[in-house]
Description:
With about 70 residues, the protein is mainly alpha-helical. Helix content is about 60%, strand content about 0%.
Amino acid sequence: AMKKRQVQKxxxxxxxxxxxLIRTIKNGVADRICFTKGNGTDLYEPTLKNxxxxxxxxxxxxxSTLENxxx
Length: 71
């Protein structure tokens, strides 16, 4: 007998948001590599910290503030 599988639905709108986030993080790490000549893996944490503390145009708040209001 065939097993039932759960199908996860996604929309193109969600994919574009995630793709934009990934591009933003990649660009942030690449910029830090150019300026610091550092190792890319060491630069993810400061890049993500910077991203989370940046005020985003769509929400008018930073990710850290939004996370605290949801919890």
